[in-house]
Amino acid sequence: MTDLTERLTPWIADYRQQLPRWTREELYKWRAVQVFQENWDLGAADFPAMLRGSLAETGNLLTSVQYFARLMIERFADQFPGEVRAAFEQLFDESHPLTERMPRFKAAAEDWRERFEGAPAASHYQDERAMLVYLTLRYPDRYYLFKPMMYQDFAALVDVAVDRRQRAKVERVIGYIALANQVRDILAQDSTLIAAHRARLPANVYPDQALHLLTQDFIYCTVRTVKEHDGKIKEGLAWLSDSAEGGDEPDTEQAREQPLAWAIGAGVNGYLWEDWKANGEMSIGWDDLGDLRDYESKEAIRQELLAETTNGSSRTNDALACWQFCQDMRPGDYVVAKQGRSAVLGLGRVIGEYEFQDSRSEFQHVRRVKWLLEGYWERTADASLPTKTLTEVTYYKRFIQPILNELENQAQLRLIEPAQTKPTGGGGQDQSDPQPKPARPAYTLDDATADLFMPTAELNGLLTSLRRKKNLILQGPPGVGKSFVARRLAYLLLGEQDADRVEMVQFHPSYSYEDFIMGYRATEHGGFLREAGVFLKFVRDVALANPDKPHVFIIDELNRANLGKVLGECMLLLESDKRGSNHKVMLPYGGEYMYLPENLYLIGTMNTADRSLALVDFALRRRFAFKRLQPELGERFADYLTQRGVATDFVGQLVAAVRRVNDKIEQDRTLGPDFLIGHSYYSEGPQAGETNQAWYERVLEDEIGPQLEEYWIETPAQAKAARQLLRLHATMVTGSGDE
Question: Whose CB among 101, 166, 258, 561 lies 3.0–4.6 Å from 511's, allowing a Cys bridge?
Fold first, then answer.
């Protein structure tokens, strides 16, 4: 049972993760049982009608492309109702073994087929599959739905022998029931799965207290998942063999047509990994066995290990690891270096045959490896990391598929750069060393304020809030430069204008968790590939890779998206005191962990004038400092326009007009300060050859005027009055500040 539990663990995790999909596609089975239970009456006066009602929801359990078990049993019931009733009575008689009941039912069906009137029947279709469906519908707490190929495929996955003799069809059914009972006992230990299973069952389906339908569903869905991904896995491994460019090639002609994948433990707490990486190798223990090539079988290794065993262990897994390391592994295979059950340390390609190096002090069984990726990829304990020292994982979809994704598009690990060969002899600079990047000039408070119109003290206050809270939201009406300020505030925090340490995205109503954190993307070859979202990529690839420097992630128009949906688990991690690996949370995809590092800062912007935007709930507000930006129409703004060629007196008239209309907006009870006209509308200045008046009128007609009409869409007179407040022609004639 222990070996079966270990084999099932990754598939149980995968099934649990895909439960919404399987519920949509497979819930009819629970409904089919409920309908049968509600309608079945062996003594019904109209037996054919009762039978049809009982089987009404069976769907493809009894009907498929070339399988018509339901059609034929209903036709037989129409012509031979008494005989069919009697056949079901004996099939459901639990006082007799299946080895008697099933052959008798099938023989009766063959007799009906031969006597069938009307269209000729090539088959009665009342085989073991159909009979086990009938038995499960009648006794769902005793039997399991059955498909012969499903059983054979699943048995192969878990390494259970199947009686394949032609005459052993009923024996295969009995073997399937025995295996399903073991699987059921294992599933019953997963309280999370059972709770999710109970929650998905509506009131109109069979409650499945004994978990027999769940067990069959798990078996079927596991086989289906493996088949769906088997081609992709082989294709991915084949692609991988083409992707290892340069470096050593396998030094043997024994490389497989399709490489296998292996997971190997790198010692306690992964202490062997650095040596493996540096020396281009991997190794296992059991040194007392000597050269593993001297053993003719796995059993011979096990017997040798048993001679030194005093604790009663069978040493089966140890012997298997040694045998596979020496005999089954091949150059060209791929290997995952793991630490315990929680982390992947590296991915590589086997390039050497087995070697026994007795000159080593320990771990004398060695193979050469070209390591391709390195890092620390933390995963949950149930996310397919085997416990054994060495395990073939080629067909462990839950484990290998994320590995293939990682090799194609690094999200958690990084490429291992080829070692640089330094020139020998002669003096001078080492030509293999990369040229250092030129130092960026410092970005100071003076640099930031030179680009902005706000007072220096206000900008300094924003910086202080960002450093204290780590999360800052700049909110305000349109046109106050929220995005412009955000980027310069980020550079000010970094101390330099380093765009590589600043990332910016803009939210919109369709933005999702999959875009931001992690999700599946369609590939050009069909199917889907799990990828990290833009935020998770920035955290892992940039911020965590350079922990000694601050990094800033800017979210423009933050409240345009459904924040709870987009942020997910990240909502908790945003708190300044929830940073670091001690506060990691598990993601719903692939069993990955996520945490935010101490060197990560977030800046969001919010437009307060758009009534269509989502409200920000208190949970998010508690995690951010909020700062309101207002139109900056002071001395710096006036100097800026003057430097761009706008006449000084004209600037004064412009500022006065904008302030007049802003006073009107602020005093309107339906609007208020969230709707003021910002300075950014005029920050562009006149185009070449454009007069001040023409530029001003263009901005009014194209940008501000339509916005005012939107503000007072139900009171056009108010909008017209506001536009009049912005007209400059009267003031230009009189020279007065008032119209």
Answer: 561
